[in-house]
């Protein structure tokens, strides 16, 4: 008969998320030998290893990947049992791991997290900012509880729920020839020098869709941060498609100019990602309701 403890499951989950016994021990306020012993005992009871050792890091093997979401669910149910069992109902506590793509994580984090953090001050939020492809991948390997992205994601294991509307604008420095020209037409963009986001970014995908509607130009820079692209455009290195929310300050101070392009569709939808197979405990349910995504 197995006698697997919540502590052993916690050690397993944290090693899976952080990649090392040392990091897991620090997160759980354990000594490294204690964390190692907990993992060894868990693997002994399961009669199978859960990790492959690769260059000093621990990576989940197929059995570990299969068991990780179940271990996470058991821990969440254990915490929920304790909370509901108290006469006072107890405030929500615990940790939510949320992923956000660049636009959301850098410019809409208040909209994303503010109301929940104010309502649930005992809950720790760990926010990871990356591009849309990276957030979707992290959702699939259960290292995130919920994702918020700006690009289309199609995967059978991920549910996509609309969250906000978003708009991009084509930006140029004020002294750029296109910024001084009235009544812009698609033909005016022939040979334009573009500063782009990296592949895998939703802003890159939108920019490529826009460029397909214009005469051929030249990509002169690829950068993985919106702020870096803003500075490159301000410095006169090219023009770019950028989220309107990200350039409000630069437009207001005259460092950038938004080009009038009514012939381009620059709208897109920001969405929440939820893993269909993930257990939705009280924490995740509360966040989803607070974000107005309940069904």
CA gyration radius, whole angstroms? 23 Å
| Global morphology | elongated
| Beta fraction | 15-25%
**Classification by helices and strands:** alpha/beta
Q: What is the H-and-E element order?
A: HHHEEHEHHEHEEHEHEHEHEEH
Helix content: 40-55%
**How many strands?**
11
Q: Treating each run of at least 4 consecutive H or I residues as one helix, how many helices?
A: 12
Distance between the termini: 40 Å
Return residue spans where pLDDT drops below 50 for at least 5 consecutive residues: none
Q: If you average the pLDDT, what whole number results?
A: 90
- Largest β-sheet summary: 7 strands, mixed
Family: Belongs to the LysR transcriptional regulatory family.
Pfam families: HTH_1, LysR_substrate
Keywords: DNA-binding, Transcription, Transcription regulation
InterPro entries: LysR_HTH_N, LysR_subst-bd, WH-like_DNA-bd_sf, WH_DNA-bd_sf
List the helices and strands and how they pair.
Elements: H1 6-18, H2 21-28, H3 32-46, E1 51-54, E2 57-60, H4 62-85, E3 94-100, H5 102-107, H6 109-119, E4 123-129, H7 132-140, E5 146-149, E6 158-172, H8 177-180, E7 193-197, H9 202-211, E8 218-223, H10 226-234, E9 240-243, H11 244-252, E10 257-259, E11 267-275, H12 282-290
Parallel strand pairs: 3-4, 3-5, 7-8
Antiparallel strand pairs: 1-2, 5-11, 6-9, 6-10, 6-11
Helix pairs in contact: 1-2, 1-3, 1-4, 2-3
């Amino acid at each position: 008969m197995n006698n697997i403890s919540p502590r052993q499951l916690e050690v397993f989950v944290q090693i899976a998320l952080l990649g090392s016994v040392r990091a897991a021990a620090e997160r759980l306020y354990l000594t490294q030998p204690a964390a190692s012993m907990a993992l060894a005992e868990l693997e002994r009871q399961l009669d199978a290893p859960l990790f492959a050792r690769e260059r000093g890091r621990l990576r989940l093997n197929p059995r570990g990947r299969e068991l990780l979401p179940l271990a996470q669910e058991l821990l969440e149910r254990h915490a929920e049992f304790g909370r509901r069992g108290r006469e006072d109902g107890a405030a929500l506590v615990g940790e939510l791991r949320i992923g956000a793509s660049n636009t959301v994580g850098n410019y809409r984090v208040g909209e994303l997290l503010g109301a929940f953090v104010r309502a649930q001050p005992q809950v720790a939020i760990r926010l990871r900012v990356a591009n849309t492809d990276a957030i979707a991948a992290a959702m699939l390997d259960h290292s995130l509880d919920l994702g918020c992205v700006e690009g289309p994601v199609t995967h059978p294991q991920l549910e996509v729920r609309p969250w906000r509307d978003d708009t991009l604008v084509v930006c140029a420095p004020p002294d750029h020839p296109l910024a001084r020209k009235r009544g812009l037409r698609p033909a005016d963009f022939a040979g334009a020098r573009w500063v782009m986001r990296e592949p895998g970014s939703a802003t890159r995908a939108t920019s490529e869709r826009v460029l397909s509607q214009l005469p051929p130009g030249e990509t002169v820079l690829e950068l993985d941060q919106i702020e870096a692209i803003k500075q490159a455009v301000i410095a006169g290195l090219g023009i770019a498609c950028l989220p309107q929310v990200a350039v409000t300050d630069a437009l207001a101070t005259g460092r950038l100019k938004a080009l009038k392009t009514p012939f381009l569709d620059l709208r897109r939808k920001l969405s929440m990602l939820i893993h269909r197979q993930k257990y939705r405990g009280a924490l995740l349910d509360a966040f989803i309701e607070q974000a107005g995504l309940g069904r």
